[in-house]
């Protein structure tokens, strides 16, 4: 460890940072990571916690593994690889039961159209007609209500 002290210090600091940010993301106290969803299809803020656990265990398990009973070492190794797998998979997808309650509730509100963004996109909302999204759809819906007539100048 003495010859790789800078790597251990960096890995420990990064691992602790990722674990703390993962805990804060799960509790809903840290939500700025949601901006990363535009780059990653999964849940990078939540996956970071698992990757942090992997980093810390991968750094220190070889150092303390000899002093652990074999069953505890095996359990710690299993947690290490499970956290690595969940961290990698979490960058792309997480099953619903691994998502925190506040994300599941937000997804339900979005599906019902009750979230702030959906409310703002409705007619009369602050974002209605912005980016051309609702305006185009509103015009198209109005066109569908009118009976079709040929516009070739023959009338």
Itemize the secondary structure elements and their pairings.
Blueprint: H1 5-27, H2 44-64, H3 70-90, H4 101-112, H5 116-121, H6 133-145
Model description:
By secondary structure, this protein is mostly helical. The protein has two domains: 2-100; 113-146, no CATH class. It has six helices and no strands. The protein has helices at 5-27, 44-64, 70-90, 101-112, 116-121, 133-145. Helix 1 crosses helix 2 and helix 2 runs antiparallel to helix 3. The chain is elongated.
Brief summary:
With 155 residues, this protein is mainly α. It has six helices and no strands.
Radius of gyration: 25 Å
Number of helices: 6
Gross morphology = elongated
Query: What is the strand content?
Result: under 5%
**Helix-strand topology string:** HHHHHH
Name the assembly state.
single chain
Mean pLDDT: 83
Poorly predicted segments: none
By DSSP, the count of extended strands is 0
List the keywords.
mainly alpha; 155 residues; 6 helices; 2 domains
């Amino acid at each position: 460890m003495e010859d790789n002290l800078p790597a251990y210090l960096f890995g420990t600091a990064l691992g602790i940072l990722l674990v703390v940010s993962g805990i804060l993301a799960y509790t809903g106290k840290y939500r700025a990571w949601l901006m990363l969803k535009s780059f990653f299809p999964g849940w990078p803020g939540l996956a970071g916690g698992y990757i942090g656990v992997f980093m810390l265990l991968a750094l220190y398990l070889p150092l303390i593994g000899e002093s652990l009973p074999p069953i505890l070492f095996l359990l710690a190794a299993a947690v290490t690889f499970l956290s690595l797998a969940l961290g990698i998979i979490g960058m792309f997808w997480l099953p619903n039961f691994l998502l925190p309650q506040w994300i599941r509730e937000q997804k339900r509100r979005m599906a019902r159209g009750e979230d702030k963004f959906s409310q703002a996109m409705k007619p009369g909302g602050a974002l209605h007609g912005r980016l051309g999204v609702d305006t185009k759809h509103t015009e198209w819906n109005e066109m569908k209500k009118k009976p079709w007539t040929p516009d070739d100048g023959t009338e």
